[in-house]
Amino acid sequence: MMNSGDTSWILVATAMIMLMTPAGLALFYGGLSKKKSVINTVGMSYVAFCTATIVWITAGYSIAFSPDGNGLFGSLDMAFLSGIETKSLTGTIPELLYVTFQGVFAAIAVAIISGSVVERIKFSTWIIFSSLWVLLVYSPLVRLIWGEGFLSHLGELDFAGGTVIHVNAGVAGLVLALLLGRRRDHRSTDPSSLKLTILGSALLWFGWFGFNAGSQLAADGIAANAFLVTNFAACTGGIAWLIVEWFKEEKPTILGLASGTISGLVGITPAAGYVDVTGALFIGLISGLIGYFGVVKLKSLLKYDDTLDAFGIHGLVGIWGSLATGVFANPAVNGEAGLLYGNPAQLLSQSIAVLVTIVFSALGTVILYKLTCLITKGARIDEEIEIKGIDSSYHKETSFSQ
To answer: Is residue 114 within 8 Å of 126, Cβ to Cβ?
Structure first.
């Protein structure tokens, strides 16, 4: 039976998550990119929301959640939402609402990838790649973990998308960045507007409450717990990054504070419905430290060009959050126990899921990249456009006075 309270909450949560991609992530990434690339960077998030939504409704939802098919690909019986009526339910909410809720998850997942490759990938390549990625990488992985797949039956805990979204997108971003190669001026750091980035991080933080607490699909105590620990982990992650940066670099930056907050949000995502505030404290603190290491140290050490650090924040921290769920899950919260509560097998399940996600995402991304290159005759923008700026020379638009 439909519950009007649950339905009202998920309607609001879905709208909150929608705000994360064409507004929150777009501003967060746009502010970090160079002035000559802001429009393109924002546009990649914006168009990803559009393409992901179209793909999800036409076929992605059916691949992920159709009752027919195998553990990796559902049948296309539910393509274009065939057979779903206004009275159809998922739990206590309308299934049409659940479709939309899951669709905004798909949109932000693929938009995260753009942060690794902005300022050097063709817009046409991105549109085609992002569409294929949602269809053939994201949707099957959703089925593996949240649908009929073996990782679901294995008992992996992913409350709101630690593996499905963050590990998946972070790894895909790194692979795509390596395939594209480094930008010609990749050592230059000249963010266009830290004000936009801070505003974007705040919008992401706000939307994350819908992201995590909404994943309970009900207005109840577990949703309230998810809301609470999400906020707590965000704060601890931000303070952890701020302190280590202050100590190591002798300067406390607000960009570091915002980045640490996002790291804390990423880390708590898979655990939000399973841990208490003590677990959230450790997850958030370590998320901030790992995010700092990935962005400031690892990228410099290995010399890869992950433009806006999608892998450093989402990939690495997502891996930590998924594993930490298997450590800190408290049965008093939602009945699931982790390593610290006498169930070491849960950590093994989390580890297997992370490894499968990394391999599946990496292989799928490589294959789709090669296919997309054939369609668009190469994925990288011309050298002249890259030097002059993709905004003015390709889109014929500018964001700031040049």
So the answer is: yes
